[in-house]
Amino acid sequence: MRRIKIGLTLPVSYLADQASSPSALLWTEMFPTVSACLAELREWGVNSIEINELNPSTDPDLIEHAAEAILSSGLQITVHGWLPMGSSQEELIRLLAVVERSLRRSGHGEAIACTVHGHHASDPPDKMQATEWTIRDLASLVSMLADQDSLWVPALEVCRHKAGGPVGVTYGEVLDMADQVSQAELGVCWDVGHSQVNYVRFGHEPFPDQAFISRLIHTHIHDILPNGKTHGPLVKIDGYVRECLAMMQAGGYEGVYNLELYPIRWEGTPQERKDALRVSIGNLRTMLEG
After folding, report:
1. Whole-angstrom distance, CA of residue 54 vs CA of residue 161
2. Would residue 206 be called left, alpha or beta, if left means φ above 0 and alpha means ψ between -120 and 50 degrees?
3. Residue 183 has what pLDDT?
4. Rounded CA separation 156/31 (Å)
5. What pLDDT is recorded for position 124?
6. 108 within a domain of the structure (yes/no)
7. Which residue from 107, 101, 100, 56 is spatially nearest to 82, judged by alpha carbons?
């Protein structure tokens, strides 16, 4: 029986002991030291960390520090990147290359997911243009990574339906864009929180077909908060999230079940949010093992 891979998203600045954003600073209140945080997460059942809050101005030294902290704690790595526009692919490539050097030094040689969003429909100004540019830039990114024999495989995410947001808010849209990239090294990321809110609020299809699941290489798992916002904790072990997990398992998914939780959006003290995080990890494991 294959080991269940449970992941958790953490800000790059927190992982590198350079917390600056409100979300990263909250993590320091929940877990004052990164080493203690990662050790405790391992005890709770986490075995992979997704590095988040990257942008074109991220210092390569920052992400190298983050990667080394994760690997020295005996955990695996995934990355939440972004899709560079046009000729700016090098901005993301340089950061991924830094992490890959650390991975290869540690003996890691398997393919790893790097999640990206489609371009925003407000920039460029319309959905059709944004879709065309997303396909173009995905093809360019995949090609550049392949030329470097990179470990990284981009995963196009199902995004939240909102005005001016990224294209790719339905399973069909994401799969169609992925299918138009001729290179094989491209997968999809099922963001369960996004697909749930898109279903509840906008009537999108609640679940994908097998064609989507067969391209699945990464996941973002979170629930809807009482105020309607996403990235909430998993406070129950039944309902929509459990149905999604069952579909993934039945479809043969073998990647990371990654919790993309934003405690900054939750109510409560830092300790109460930490407790909700621990419960979420436990509930995810219960759903996957049950």
Report:
1. 22
2. alpha
3. 73
4. 31
5. 59
6. yes
7. 56
Give pLDDT, residue 89: 83
Q: Is residue 173 part of a domain?
A: yes
What per-residue confidence (pLDDT) applies to 81?
A: 96
Other Cβ atoms closer than 10 A to 116: 25
Q: Domain of 266: which CATH number?
A: 3.20.20.150
**Of 54, 37, 55, residue with least CA distance to 46:** 37
Q: What pLDDT is stored for residue 123 in this prediction?
A: 61
Band the pLDDT of 18: cuts 50, 70, 90: very high
Bridge partners (DSSP) listed for residue 50 = 9, 78
Q: How far apart are CA 239 and CA 242, in angstroms?
A: 6
Q: How many domains does the chain have?
A: 1
Has residue 1 been placed in a domain? no
| Segment 124-176, tens digit of pLDDT | 569 999 999 999 999 999 999 999 999 999 999 999 999 889 999 999 999 99
Cα separation, 68 vs 4, in Å, equals: 23
| Rg of the chain, C-alpha, whole Å | 18
In b/e form, how buried is each residue of 247-281, taking b as 16+ CB within 10 angstroms?
bbeeeebebbbbbbbbbebbeeeeeebbebbbebb
Instruction: Read off the amino acid at residue 286.
Output: T
What percentage of the chain carries pLDDT values higher than 90? 91
Query: Does a cis peptide bond (omega within 30 degrees of 0) precede residue 166?
Result: no
Range of the domain at 190: 6-289
pTM confidence score? 0.97
The DSSP call for residue 119 is: P
Smallest CA-to-CA distance from 63 within 97, 104, 90 is with 97
